Heparan sulfate 2-O-sulfotransferase 1
Amino acid sequence: MGLLRIMMPPKFQLLAVMAFGIAMMFIENQIQKLEDSRTKLELTIARHEVREVEQRHMQEAARDWTPPGESDDVVIIYNRVPKTASTSFTNIAYDLCSKNHFHVLHINTTKNNPVMSLQDQVRFVRNVTSWKEMKPGIYHGHVAFLDFSKFGVKAKPIYINVVRDPIERLVSYYYFLRFGDDYRPGLRRRKQGDKKTFDECVSSAGSDCAPEKLWLQIPFFCGHYSECWNVGSRWALEQAKYNLVNEYLLVGVTEELEDFIMMLEAALPRFFKGATDLYRTGKKSHLRKTTEKKPPTKDSITKLQGSEIWKMENEFYEFALEQFQFVRAHAVREKDGELYVLAQNYFYEKIYPKVN
């Protein structure tokens, strides 16, 4: 460079220096662009790797997760309330279990006590969660709701149930204790021989038709808390409502049992595929009917409806009915006098990032 300065005129020397400076700036700019490109490439590669990991995890999770209605590891608990058409419904489960390959287990408690001891609660939770040979399965019995989360269980069972107008349920139970039903007509019932009608019981303020006898559906849904069984407890009513909404997949009503069965078949086909047709055409679905049952008079109904206990039980029943009708309104439609289940009514769009 020094020799060039000697040989070149000053004017050309200046141009040479400027050209050299421009060349160096261009080279530095290209180097910076290469550095930026490398950084972007590394970032793109990193994002791609992260995306691949996320997609792999999502695919693994999809393989591990099976819809409740199709899984072979699902357990349903039907803690059936007495005289709500529970036998009619369980007969359908018995008829379907061989065809649909699931188990049905009847929970028979001593003296029909709906409250389990603490040690029996632990045993029952262990049975339901770890008895693999009985999965998939439906457990049913006259037992109060049991919160499995209290026992540290992650995969909780699916709860279902049916409720009935409280006075109609009590009248049915009153005559059932005296005359039985057409399911097992030869079986002697606890009050057999007592010919007193329900109306006569109400007019004489008998114990078997007292308002306190209405207090049953609330504690069955409330569960294994002492306050649940305190007759007339507002706390028990609110807890029963909470459990119905948060812990039960579906709660039907006796008066609309066919709709309840239809919705279960749509939601849980693994268990209830064919249940609707079986209910409509089978003999067992209408098998159990209380005999010698006489509808109560308006005076008897009015007298019971004057009690605070009836008001609370009826409030719970109306709450359950409204929830059931809400679910049904979004699940089925009526056409030509027949109900049918709606097909899938949601879809996905604008899924990003797009895959080439």
